[in-house]
Design brief:
By secondary structure, the chain is mainly beta. The chain has three domains: 101 residues, Immunoglobulins (Immunoglobulin-like, Sandwich), CATH 2.60.40.10; 101 residues, Immunoglobulins (Immunoglobulin-like, Sandwich); 93 residues, Immunoglobulin-like (Sandwich). Helix content is 0%, strand content 50%. Strands 4, 6, 8, 9 and 10 form a five-stranded mixed sheet that branches. Strands 11, 13, 15, 16 and 17 form a five-stranded antiparallel sheet that branches. Pfam families: Invasin_D3.
Amino acid sequence: MRLLLPLIFLFIPIMIVANSQLSDKYDVSKEEITADGKNATTLIFTAKDASNQPIRNLNVRFKRSHEADTRLSAVTEHKRVTITPHIDGQAVERVAAETVTFKVACVDFDESSFSASSSILFTDGQDKVTLAFTAKDSHNQPVRGLVISFNKEKNRPSGSSTILSDITETDGVYRATLTATTKGSKEATSELVDFRLMIDGKPAGVVNGVLLIAPKYYFTVSKDSIAPNYEDESTLTFTAIDGGNQPLHGLAVSFKRDDEEGTILSPIIEKNGVYSATLKGFSAKKVTIEPCIGGQPVAGITEKTVTLSWQ
């Protein structure tokens, strides 16, 4: 992340007097500013002739020793930039260059906070928890440009897989979104995970209490044997509820058949977390059916077999 540090260039334009000796002055209003994208220093170059009269219409600009360094990524050490006034592209030798120091404000942890938007996350791949670190200095002002990470603590072997988005920063608030999916059993299990706040690769705090709860899935068929007459049918039912026993809506559920030839599957209908479709056929065979979410088999769910037979 790079921060644009504002430099306010204040020019005092004055007319050149022929064959005169210049009496110039160069100042900066602040020799040190915080690299927060808001603080600024004013550069003042005053040009006068030998009679102490102002010289107008000079082509004045300020040349920095490190121009790129006024757009700063996060830094931990002070950075010094030397700024020299120029007239018509030539350095003004009669005045000394001024130096401005940019530094990153220190985080005051008494003013800052690290939290989770919820203490519970359902591992259905859709539920989300936002981790947020609000960085402030001792004056309760936001601190920008920090190198932040949220590291998951090493716990016992987990039945869930967590995904943390990239961290974004707005006005000193660093956020990332956490989602999780279940690796194993269909039974509702829970585990507590901790995320450690890291600043510049160093531990800075821990947020506790994000409880991962696995959803519960059930799969049934109304008949395990049907006649291949295009009229008899078996209803496939997939039920999805979260760890709080609430229905999971809007899942991309599908029923995968190992042999689709000679079978017809109706469109899937969802109501209150129950996803259902009917299977018919006109060829004698056995069809193995596996429910999927987002095209992936559902962990812990046993596939079912429907036999199409005249017996």
